[in-house]
Amino acid sequence: MISLYQIIVSIILGVVQGISEWLPISSKTQIIIVSQYILGLNFSQAYAFGLFMEIGTIFAAVIYFRKEVWILIRTLFGKGSASDWKLFKFALISTIVTGVIAVPIYKAVADISGGYNIGLPMIILGMILFMDALLIHYSRTKYADDKNRKTVDNIGLKEYILVGIAQGLAALPGVSRSGATTSTMLLLNIEAREAFRLSFIDMIFATTAAVFVTLIFSGSSVSSTIAQISLAGLAVAILVATGISLLLINFLLNIARKSKIIYLTAALGAIALAGGIIISFFPLAFSAG
Questions:
Q1: What is the domain extent for residue 55?
Q2: How far is 235 from 272, CA to CA, in rounded Å?
Q3: In 143-260, where does DSSP find H-type helix?
Q4: What are the angstrom distances between the C-alpha of 227 and each of 2, 28, 221, 222, 223?
Q5: What is the pLDDT, as a whole number, of residue 192?
Q6: What is the mean pLDDT of the chain?
Q7: In total, how many domains does the chain have?
């Protein structure tokens, strides 16, 4: 029987995961911080559980992008259009590159026994997002309505690989997957709404693989954490994360469709920068020890 304490903890974890996955503050980092404080986990346990908790946001992305997921499945069996094949190649190649980069990073970080400065990657990402906002502003000043920007139909192998590298580096604590991939695509001159859309679609495959990697290399850490909140508590956390994620995906894509994307990108940069600075000022609280 699930206790009231387990329900409260599960809701907190679900809310943190559901909000932070779509903001440039690294959901796994926030789960690391929260689970260290309320569950008493060490860094390695919290890091593994942070990646495992992304199940909720995978469900949300699959639900929201169910048409695109169905297109990718049809394309796998040779029934897609030319545009569908472009989306399929983007998802496939970027996910493979992500795996090549992310798995060694995961193993190295999971074995950390000393301190780790989570704040520094967040500060760097915040500065990149500010740069993105300036580039969008410049682009819209020179070219009306972003008509010069790319979509999935006119990007190629270079973009696939660079997005995959950015997504792979997000295995590092403090690096936001959505922030890293979206920033990379904006820097590659991809249209803003398309950058958010492709980032969220790409997340489905990369994060699903990350969950399996976590179970393979850190299954005992994940199991011991689940035992603290119970399977029912885990289900509550995943459901809460899924519901909040669905709301935020829709909100971000609607903003990205409008001219307010400049302000959104700058605001996300400010969030990442502020979060990184705050965490850097309290390094002992977020150390690996």
A1: 4-286
A2: 29
A3: 157-169, 177-187, 192-257
A4: 11, 19, 10, 9, 6
A5: 80
A6: 82
A7: 1
